Each structure stands twice: as C-alpha cells, then as structure tokens.
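A common beginner's mistake is to predict each chain separately and then try to dock the pieces by hand. The better habit, illustrated here, is to supply every component at once so that their relative placement is modeled jointly.
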Amino acid sequence: MAGKRLYIETMGCQMNVLDSELVVGQLLGKGFSLTNEMTTADLVLLNTCSVRDHAEAKALSRLGSLKKPKNANPDMIVGVIGCMAERDPDGITLKMPHVDLICGPGELNKIPAMIDEIEETRERSVALSQSLSRRSTPLERANEYDSVEALDLSRSAGIDGNPLQAYVRVQRGCDKFCTFCVVPFTRGAERSRPPQLIVDECRMLVDRGVKEITLLGQTVNSYVNQDDGKAVRFAELLERIDAIAGLERLRFVTSYPGDFTDDIFHAMRDLRTACEYLHLPVQSGSDPVLKRMRRQYSVGQYIDLVDKARDIVPGITLASDFIVGFCGETDEEHAESLKLIERCTFKNIFVFKYSERPGTVAAKRVTDDVPDDVKRRRNMEMLQVQENIAIQTNRGLIGQTVQVLVEGYSKRAIKAQVAETERGQEISSEVTGQLVGRTRTDRIVVFSGETDLVGRLIDVQISGATALTLHGEVAGASGSSCGTGGLVSINVS
Ligand code: SAH
Ligand code: F3S
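With all components supplied together, the output reads:
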C-alpha cells in the first residue's frame, strides 16, 4: 500500500471522529499518506452516521459524487464505514454499486486486510458485526480494535485538528434501546473497556502534549469493568485518570440521566482535572413522551438530578439534547419541554427534529405523525427560548475573569484569513489576532492575542456576550505552552 493516498471524511458524532483517527493510524502504518483531494485519492473512506435520515442522505450524495472519478480511475477504492454501513449494507450496494468496501463500526480493524483483498480480487468486501456483536462476551468486544499504536501514528500526523485535545473511548455500544434510536443496532451491546487500557492511553496522550481529554461513551456514567476481581465504576475511572501528571482537563460525554450516581458528582467537585460541565440529554420535558421514548426516568427525576448537580458541583454548567415532534407529541407536550428549558437554565441545547429510523421500536410500533412544518416550528421555538436564557446568563458573566484553554484561531478569523489569502491580500493583524478558547465549563471565549498563546491556559476578563460566545481580553497566563505544531484539519462534516 506504500505511496497510496487516503481521503477520509467523517460525519456524525465524536465517536466517529475517534474511529476515523484509528482507521487513519492503521492505514498510515501500512504506508498510506493522507490527502485533502477526494477525486484523485487511491482510497476514499466515508465514515457515516445513521442517527437521522438527513445524515444518511448526505452520505449518499457524497457517494454519488464519486461515481465519475471512480469511472475515470477504476483502481480507486471507495469505502463506506461506520453506522450506515452496519445499518444498511444492501441499500448502499443497490444505490451505489461503485462502493468497494462496507465496514461497520465494530469491525474497523479489518480494513487493511479488506483493502488487500479488494486489490487482489477486485470484488466488494463487507465486514459487519450485525447480531454477532450481541452474542460475543463483553470483554472480547471491549478489547477490540482501539490501539495505542494506531492512535499514536494518526496523532503524530496531526489529523485531528487539535493536538491539545483528544478523545478516549471508555465504552462501546448501548443497551438502553430508546425507542427512537438506531445506535444499539449499529454499535451493538454496551461494553466497557478495561480501566488499565484507558489509563495507559490517556497517559500516552498526555506524554504527547495533550492537555484536555474527553472520555467517550453512549452512556459513560454506566461504565463498569472488572479489574482484579473488583468492579471499577465511572467515578473511580475518573479518579485514576485524574492522577496523570500533566493532564489539565478531563471531560466526558454522554451521560444518561437514568443511571447518574452521586459519586460522579463528588468526583467532579473534588478532582483537579474534572471539568464542571455535564452533557445530560433529556429528550423531552413531558412524562408521557419520555415513556413513549422508553427513557426510564421522569421529568421530576431529571429536575432533581439537575438540582443535585448544582448543589454538589459549584459553578457547573449543563447542556442537553431535545427531540421535537416525536410520534404523537402534542402542543401541550411540547410546551412542557419549553417549561423544562426555562426551569433548568442550560448552557446550550441541541434540538433535533424526530427522524424515523428503520428497525427501531418507534418505527415498528408508532406513527411518525407530526408534520414536518410543526417539527420545524417547535424546533425554532425551543431554540428561541434557549437563546433568551443563554444571553441572560452569559451577560451575567461580564466583568468576571475565567480560565481559558486557548484552542486556536476563531472560525471567523480563519474564514477571513482564507478569503484574504485568496484575494492575494495581506492578512491584517486584527483578523489573525482573534483567538478562541474554552472555559472549564465549556463556554466559548473569543479574544485578541498572539499565536504563542495557543495551547496555554490563560485568564480572560469577559467584556461582552452573545448566546453562544463570550468576548474578552487577556488578563494573564496561568500555564505553559506545549508546542502545538501545524493544525491540519481532518474532513469533518
Ligand atoms: N448517547 C448518545 C446519543 C446518540 S444520538 C450520545 O453520545 O450523545 C445523539 C442525539 O441525537 C440524541 O441525544 C438524540 O437527541 C438525537 N437522536 C437520536 N435518535 C434520533 C432520531 N431518530 N431522530 C432525531 N434525533 C435523534
Ligand atoms: Fe441512543 Fe438512548 Fe442509547 S439515545 S445511544 S439508545 S441511551
């Protein structure tokens, strides 16, 4: 495979970003190099998402655009990996016969061998977990695939866009089977990785200069793994990672409200690195809707949890996910969700219009009966309510000084920079000076500063606020630079 060029595009969640990183690592180890040119690559991989129909439609459209380049160069290998590959391999081959490789998210370690096979036979190669993943023993499946060597290789190539931050998987799959969700079908049963593997991986990343680690799992707080005959739970895992010298910040996503235990709040309060931020998707503020979604908690229990988080962890911020227009959702039920948003004062929320997914309980048993224009209206209403709340809370921060990990240039500055360069103009220092960073509570802060601040923990005094962004001025540095190198972006859409 030496001398061949790989183009990879990643859709969907952070788990996919990490999976792509691992796939790239394996392929760099086999002699591939990365390219940003899709149409002239030797191998094109699309890492896909199935959570909503829209994401799948987008993947199909990208695949469609590969027909011509593949015709021009029949040796090009086109691969679909990730959740859509697992969910609908037949649909993909039917609609996109030029696809050579189909690989589910549990089988990604097979990709190098699959490529060898395709080059030899010119036949399509398919690797799926399907029901198998539900039959394997939890430990077998938990150890699969994540390899420190692959991670090391891809990170040294700088593909993930930010050498300061890294994702580490603690868990695969999900056992909750919320009625709307396709994830248990595409990613299989919940299995937690051994704690020692996770801690070793975190240490390796910190040795390479990573300052902030985000632990990934579908329901991270239900993490449990046997270590020397003793069950290690999530709070203890946080404690073990917190002991790594040089790590500055530890985050985790996503938590499941039904399983949240106090020891995790205590860990968030007491551990040096644990950030005061919690993503706690609620999905709806109506008990009957939660029941239809099979979320296994009530609105009252969710509110109690939010209150407890604020009691135990000073300054904590909360984010949430909502689905609008789930089967049978009435205006009254939607109004209950708006009420919950008012009650909880989230830092931000992610709102999704319900999208029926084939194979789920909801698709089989209930009707997707809320019209799209109603879904759209409810979506906008929710965002409007949240925006008003977020502006109020963010304005309350004006005048305060917050600690920020400087991540790089702000998006606006990058856009302006590209536009100026394309016009052949010199980049003004006013534009390049717009840096962006994040507080421990996951608030985005934009401020003016020099490039050498990137990678450092600094204090910023807040002088302005919108719903999603704070603006401020540098007040002082509280950490050392860690040499960020060039920021090369992976193709995430
Ligand atoms: N625990 C996972 C959830 C994965 S899906 C996590 O890591 O975030 C992410 C979000 O997508 C869910 O919280 C839910 O709000 C939304 N979602 C899932 N299935 C959906 C569907 N069928 N239609 C619309 N939104 C959906
Ligand atoms: Fe999906 Fe519910 Fe699991 S949203 S990922 S089935 S917790």
